[in-house]
Amino acid sequence: MSVYRIAAVVLRQLYLLRNSPARWLPLFVWATVDIVLWGFITRYLNTIASSGFDFIPMLLGAVLFWDFFTRVMNGVAIAFLEDVWSRNFLNFFTSPLTIAEYLTGLIFTSITTSLVGLTVMLFLARAVFGLSWFVYGAAFVPFLLVLFLFGIGMGIFGSAVVFRLGPASEWLIWPIPAILSPFAGVFYPLATLPHWMHGISYLLPASYIFKGMRKIVAGGTQEASVEWSSLLLATGLSVAYILLACWFFSRIYRHATRSGLIARYSAETVP
For the residues 198-222, what does the mean pLDDT come to? Predict the structure, then answer.
């Protein structure tokens, strides 16, 4: 892979962000709305809870982790859709750019945009609502890493679906986090779910993250509270989903090039 071609994909997206407030403002605005809304909800719950339990690290932390996953996934998908909207595919792939380089460029673009949103959320949660990330102990970074990898996999998969079905199907990408969140147990233990949902939950890396987060909040930051085997399993699942998503995207790309559909790809065509 060529570092220069990967950098070119990233720079194109950064130039779009730099020159368009409509693109970079949502990186701050939606993060702020999520933190403020859920921050006041958790503060209200703390005032009415008779047990004195602190809802901030449990609920507000869950919102932040899930929001980070969503932004990583959307970072990949939106970077892909920018090329769809501008009908830029043919320009890219008449060059020596490979699929691996293109997807790597989308991933680095997502890293940049998701880190901006994460920084805003961390600052607001700490400054306004007093959420200390030390409460999650040594597992905080692995939690983010697993959700990042899972978000990359879902972003590439969603992009491949749009690539195959056509630009008009982009609406299929946006509900993915909402559809997955009940199975991931973002706000409640998996035991709350009916048994038929458990099988799907165990296949989602995020479910292990939120289970571990709740265990840490309930039991402190001791090493015994961190299920490292579950984190390792979640990491393996995330990597597997990335590999499968990349294979799926490459397969769709080969179909589009062999059939000539990539040359006719526009906002109105559906392969």
Answer: 84
- Whether 155 maps to a domain, the answer reads yes
Enumerate residues 6+ apart whose C-beta is below 8 A from 84: 162, 167, 170, 265, 267
Residue 197 within any structural domain of the chain = yes
Burial class (CB in 10 A: 0-12, 13-18, 19+), 208: buried
HSE-CB for 260 with a 13 A CA cutoff: 0
Domain that holds residue 145: 3-264
| Number of compact structural domains in the chain | 1
**Which candidate, 234, 214, 233, places its Cα nearest to that of 225?**
214
* Both tokens assigned to 265: 């790809």
271 is a domain residue = no
Picking from 167-176, 192-201, 234-243, which range would have the lowest pLDDT averaged per residue? 167-176
Q: Is residue 270 part of a domain?
A: no
